[in-house]
Design brief:
This protein is an alpha+beta fold. The protein folds into four domains: about 55 residues; about 100 residues, Serine Threonine Protein Phosphatase 5, Tetratricopeptide repeat, CATH 1.25.40.10; about 130 residues, 2-Layer Sandwich (Phosphorylase Kinase, domain 1), CATH 3.30.200.20; about 180 residues, Orthogonal Bundle (Transferase(Phosphotransferase), domain 1), CATH 1.10.510. It is about 50% helix and about 10% strand. It contains 20 helices and ten strands. The strands form two sheets. The protein has a seven-stranded antiparallel β-sheet, with helices on both faces. A three-stranded antiparallel β-sheet has the order 8-9-10. The longest helix is centred in the first third of the chain and has 31 residues. The radius of gyration is 34 Å and the shape is elongated.
């Protein structure tokens, strides 16, 4: 009994009352002269027994507090479990089940971020209604979260009035889902000025390790690349500036999510083809192509180490108020065509030519084409996900249709890029994906000379040739397109 009392398993108030009643009975029996009536003893004894009974059955005050704390802890643990289970389901492609789990989490900023990334995944899988439901759920407790209001409005037909916005929606939004598990760690580390060492083979929570000094982790999981800062984020991941520990050279490291865009049964095929093409791209050696130095994979995330190029991508110059001189544009696109002519001879199609994948160093006047091999999607998934991953504004009709591609698809995309850099807008300015697909497949683009009557006829002809709907009517090789571009450039000098 003493042990139970110490452990607060007996209600102390009732236990004390029972002891008091028992003591009173004993005193009365001993001192009363003559002896008290039996009924009086019986009453006091009953009080003692009832009090003792309550002492063992009534919950103690400390137990009530403990139970309250336990309930709160259980609720917290339950919500954390729902979050963990939801993330696992999302990783397996079970998005609807993941949504149900996330809805059982606390309605806070963290949950809003989880559901936002899930909504993006719904969009990637071609489930707009589910995506809308997810965005609307966020608005019930975080109405000003990111661009949720704009995304909800887009589902009602108020989508995209400007092509740049359309590109941003289709190109940049998936990145959050692609690197959710790692972006927070990376951004915090960069902000704090610390070093991040990429560790292939590590567990998910160990994949990036923070260190004040490199010497503390000289051979961390065999890694040789140290990330220093964020350069940018794109369609499939993020790009970082770092250095090679072995050579001490400055490099760029791109981190991609191999699994977020595909179903589990397609992942192995994608990995095989991805690594095969990255290996092929790594063999490319051309002055206008960013050199791939190394690649690896860990926990579904791939990293590609590349030469670091000091410059800016051409998206900065694809605006009406920042256009480069036409002669400069022709020179840039001709160098890109040179790079494609070389890669096509090696059997590698780029599949994602656009201003953002062309790095330009204005001071030294050179161009580098990047992201070779990264846009490759298995045949069975091109229609489902390819249009988003490949940046649809620059896609050829056959690429949007999910058909087998050859080198002429790259030339169409290069033609769209040329058009955009000369006018500040791509050939088509859609409001929806359906309109874009229809325009690229069927509609005639506005002639560049109608936009700028001073455009030389040679340039207008070159653009129109590159943008032919039928591949057989386009330039049949990148080399022939490069020659025509330089011919036009020379005409501008005369």
């Amino acid at each position: 009994m003493l042990h139970m009392l110490i452990e607060n398993k007996i209600n102390t108030k009732w236990f004390a009352l029972s002891l008091l009643a028992s003591a009173l009975t004993a005193v009365l029996l001993w001192v009363t002269q003559p002896p008290i009536l039996v009924t009086q003893v019986t009453v006091i004894t009953l009080i003692s027994l009832i009090s003792l009974s309550w002492a063992f059955t009534a919950p103690s005050t400390s137990n009530i507090v403990d139970e309250s704390q336990t309930d709160a802890a259980n609720r917290f643990e339950s919500r954390n479990n729902q979050r963990s289970v939801g993330l696992k389901l999302q990783g397996l492609g079970q998005l609807n089940l993941a949504f149900e789990k996330f809805k059982q989490c606390a309605k806070n900023h963290d949950t809003a971020n989880l559901v936002y990334n899930l909504a993006i995944d719904f969009q990637i899988k071609g489930e707009p209604e589910n995506a809308r439901n997810a965005f609307e759920y966020i608005s019930t407790f975080e109405p000003n979260f990111k661009d949720v209001r704009a995304r909800i409005a887009a589902f009602t037909g108020e989508i995209i009035s400007e092509s740049d916005n359309f590109e941003k929606e289709t190109q940049e939004a998936p990145e959050q889902a692609a690197i959710t598990q790692h972006s927070t760690i990376i951004e915090k580390a960069v902000a704090s000025g610390k070093t991040i060492i990429l560790a292939p083979g590590a567990e998910p929570e160990e994949e990036t390790v923070l260190a004040e000094e490199l010497s503390e982790y000289p051979t961390l999981y065999g890694s040789r690349y140290k990330i220093k800062s964020v350069l940018g984020q794109g369609t499939t991941g993020a790009v970082f500036k770092g250095n090679d520990i072995v050579t001490d050279e400055i490099i760029a490291i791109k981190v991609l999510n191999l699994s977020s865009e595909l179903e589990a049964n397609q992942l192995e095929e994608y990995k095989f083809r991805f690594h095969r093409e990255i290996e092929t791209a790594g063999n490319l050696n051309h002055p206008n192509i960013v050199k791939i130095l190394d690649s690896g994979e860990t926990d579904g995330f791939a990293y590609i180490a590349m030469e670091y190029v000091d410059g800016t991508n051409l998206r900065s110059y694809a605006r009406a108020d920042r256009l480069l001189h036409p002669k400069t544009v022709l020179k840039i696109i001709a160098q890109c065509a040179d790079a494609l002519a070389y890669s096509h001879k090696q059997g590698l199609i780029h599949r994602d030519i656009k201003p953002a994948n062309i790095i330009y160093n204005q001071a030294d006047d050179y161009v580098k084409l990047t992201d070779f091999g990264i846009a490759r999607i298995p045949d069975s998934t091109r229609t489902r996900a390819g249009s988003i991953l490949g940046t649809p504004l620059y896609m050829s009709p056959e690429q949007l249709a999910g058909e087998r591609l050859d080198a002429r698809s790259d030339l169409y995309s290069l033609g769209v890029t040329l058009y955009h850099l000369l006018t500040g807008s791509p050939p088509f300015r859609p409001k929806t994906m359906a309109e874009l697909m229809r325009s690229i497949a069927q509609e005639q683009h506005k002639d560049i000379s109608e936009i700028n009557p001073d455009t030389p006829s040679c340039i207008a002809w070159t653009v129109n040739k590159a943008l032919e709907k039928a591949p057989d009517k386009r330039f049949q090789s990148a080399a022939s397109m490069a020659n025509k571009l330089r011919e036009c450039e020379m005409m501008l000098d005369s």
